[in-house]
Amino acid sequence: MLQALYDTPLSSKNLLVNRDEEINSLNAICFYQPKGVYGLCGETGGGKTTILNFIEPGVGKRVYVRLTEKESKEIIIGDMLYKLAKEIEKHEEKGKLLTTAKKSIEFIIEERSETRSIGASGGIFVSGNFSKTTTHTRKFNIYHAYELLDDILNLLIEKYNRIILLIDELDKEKKEEVLIILDSLKNIFDKQGLIVILSLPFAIYREYAKDRLRWNESGNLENILKDTYFLEPLSNEQIQEVILKRLRKYPDFLDSDALYEIARYSDGNPRDALWISQQIVLNNLHKKRITGNIAVKTIKKITKKYFENSLQLTDLQEAVLNTITQYGNRNIIVKKLEEKGIKRQTAYTYINRLKENGLIIERNGQLKVSGKIFYIISK
Predict the structure, then answer these.
(1) Backbone φ, ψ for residue 122 (5° rounding)
(2) Is residue 107 in some structural domain?
(3) Is 24 inside any structural domain?
């Protein structure tokens, strides 16, 4: 069961739940659109990498790049170039494309090695009783990296006519940093026959939506992205389906109430659902069946262990949170808090702060307490 609940991007559609629409839309873009950069946005753990795994439009050359080095914009672009070149090196046997890929790999290795060694070296000057260390740094040659990336993409298009470039893990960066990176790459990615799909943080989707709503005015993201796709959180029923599909060999281990508690904890995030399900299994190895009561006790134990010491709630915060667990509508929540003697403006201020801190979630105009917080404050 622990192996079945292990959180990893899917490669088989047998375990996929409610993502066909996004996959079909992105495959259609890859097949029909002449060019463009597209964003796949969503919460961490929502399944963006899984979606990228299923992008197979049946035309052109599909290239998948997973970023790992992220100290700065220069390092991210260098990592992108290096990973792209390594993918080419794996599949090309000869020709100018392979030669350029190898040149790119050598360039990145040499640049990183020299930058690190120079940055770590230095001289020590001693004068009387005082000493001073100086460090010389060498900047990464970002302009040559752009040139090599441009050359590789042009050669790929020349050979395969159509390139589907999938870039994963850019969603782990801050919105501002992602915008800088995308802006610096927009001209390089603007090529006939090149479709680029990037996994991006949820904040980019919000920013893009605002740009689209502006009247007679172009936003910055509209100049970079042709469109964005947002992975909506799964419903409670869909989260339960995710767990049931994983545990298809053990259909009776979790009863319906236990599945409900797992879904409530997860807030629609498959990664959180799989993690808490594993914790429930690990904490109840002697049980033959997990009921709703057992699941609640285990989730309370886990949330207390991980979150209670780092979360100190005031009486007023608890009052607001407990009211939100009973009512979803913001106006009704404020009215109920006013009946408890909390001023209207204070109620709105606390709701907004709790939302900013991730303790409450707003979806489709309704407020709810985050699943993790719910099990901490519930009696």
Answers:
(1) 165, 180
(2) no
(3) yes
Tell whether 201 and 215 lie within a shared domain.
yes
129 belongs to a structural domain: no
Q: How far is the CA of 33 from the CAs of 187, 194, 223, 281, in angstroms?
A: 18, 9, 17, 46
Q: What's the pTM value of the predicted model, to 2 decimals?
A: 0.84
Q: Are residues 251 and 357 in the same domain?
A: no
Enclosing domain of residue 52: 13-94+143-230
**Assign residue 253 a region: left if phi > 0, alpha if psi is -120 to 50, beta otherwise?**
alpha
pLDDT at position 21: 92
| Per-residue pLDDT reduced to its tens digit, 311-367 | 788 889 989 999 999 998 999 999 999 999 999 999 999 999 999 888 999 888 899
Structural domain includes residue 119: no
Residues with Cβ within 8 Å of residue 293, at least 6 apart in sequence: 257
Number of domains into which the chain is organized: 3
Contact 81, 39 (CB under 8 A): no
Neighbours of 289 (CB within 10 A): 12
Same domain, 67 and 159: yes
Single residue among 181, 201, 230 that ends a domain in this structure: 230
Final residue in a domain of this structure, among 199, 230, 261: 230
Mean pLDDT of the chain: 88
pLDDT at 136: 46
Residues 6 or more apart whose Cβ sits within 8 Å of residue 369:
321, 324, 325, 359, 360, 361, 377
Query: Is residue 199 located within the same domain as residue 317?
Result: no
